[in-house]
Amino acid sequence: MPLKLGRTLFKTTERLLNVQKNFLKGPLNLFPSSSVPFIAAPKRPDPQTRGRWKRHVFISPAMNKQPLLSKLDYYTFTPSPTSTRPSTQDMPLVVMLHGCTQNAYSFAQGTQMNRVAQANGFVVVYPQQSKRYQLNSCWRWFLPDERRGLAEADTIMEIIDTTISMYRLDPEKVFIAGLSAGAAMASLVAMRHPERFCALAMHSGPILGKAHSLATGLEIMRAEELEETEELLEHLSEYEPQHFNLPTMIIHGEQDNVVNSSNAQQLATQFLHLNDMPIETEPSISHRYAQTSREYMHKSYKYKRQTVVELVEVKHLDHAWSGGDDSLAYNSRKGPNSSKLVWNFFKRCARQYDIRKIEQEPLPDID
């Protein structure tokens, strides 16, 4: 090969590699950068000797009426039976959506949610994004169209229905939670099917409705300044359901350098609006574990003593699950135990749901 032609090919190849490298920088910003290296979680997450961890595969029906993913893995944890809980029948269901670069194993091990499930008697389902749909295993919340983000949301709903049927769970006690991209997808699933959930929890998630591309997704995550309220609520216009009663918990680290903490208060505003509450509603505020690594501020927005929105701002936490297994990336010992915090919130919402249901039932006819 002539020397001149060889140099030309080398330079062309080098330019193509640089283009590819720069292109990949965008998607890489959609998942957390952590000082803790990613370590594959063990095949079975904790607890090791209690409960059952099982892999399942969702296959899209041949004649489905709506666009769904063709195939998606998901995992379930069912607690060991006890004398008071001999089976899973009528148990609640908690849906857990992992963040980018995570999978069901690492998310379950990191959050330790299965331990909470074993102690309290509920089933957990972990849908797992496939690299065939997104190279970094990110849920595509930033592309909310029928072929991608919305198809993922509806597929997750199909997995939830299958799990409820499989384990004979209580269909009125279904809760959904997620971290980062998983938090964004949890909110998208809730927007699509608000009547199906008893409560929602988002950890380190972005605001709703604004993202329609990779670029706008990155813009939301990095934004440090609050948006004007009118614009913030306008983002909800195409998702806003007519009937919405979904208590919501938001947890966010004040040191988060991936999804800026400005998103947390704006999410609280959005969910106050969605729940038909005045956005000027003043919360009750408590400071907990002051002057320690677990320090956080808990804001509670209520209507007639019932929870509507709870906002937990963790002082020393970065982009990680608070109180998680910090041997895995995107988990930190700093802050409260988020899994227990989330479950306690879900339990309160379940009790309040029962009260609302009783109050809404018509009085019996009197002859």
Structure description:
- With 367 residues, the chain is α/β, with parallel strands linked by helices.
- The chain has helices at 3-28, 104-111, 113-120, 149-167, 181-192, 214-222, 229-234, 262-274, 338-360; strands spanning 52-59, 71-78, 93-97, 123-128, 174-179, 199-203, 248-253, 284-288, 296-303, 306-314, 321-322, 331-332.
- A 10-stranded mixed β-sheet has the order 1-2-4-3-5-6-7-10-9-8, with helices on both faces.
- A hairpin with a 2-residue loop joins β9 and β10 (306-314).
- The longest helix has 26 residues, at 3-28.
- Residues 3-41 have low confidence and may be disordered.
- State the helical fraction: 25-40%
If you average the pLDDT, what whole number results? 88
Total strands: 12
In this structure, how is the largest beta sheet organized?
Answer: 10 strands, mixed
What's the Cα radius of gyration?
Answer: 22 Å
One letter per element, helices H and strands E, the order comes to HEEEHHEHEHEHHEHEEEEEH
Shape: globular
Runs in which pLDDT lies below 50 for 5 or more consecutive residues are 3-41
Spatial order of the strands in the main sheet? Answer: 1-2-4-3-5-6-7-10-9-8
Q: Would you tell me the structural class of the helices and strands?
A: alpha/beta
Number of helices: 9
Strand content: 15-25%
Give the N-to-C terminal Cα separation. 101 Å
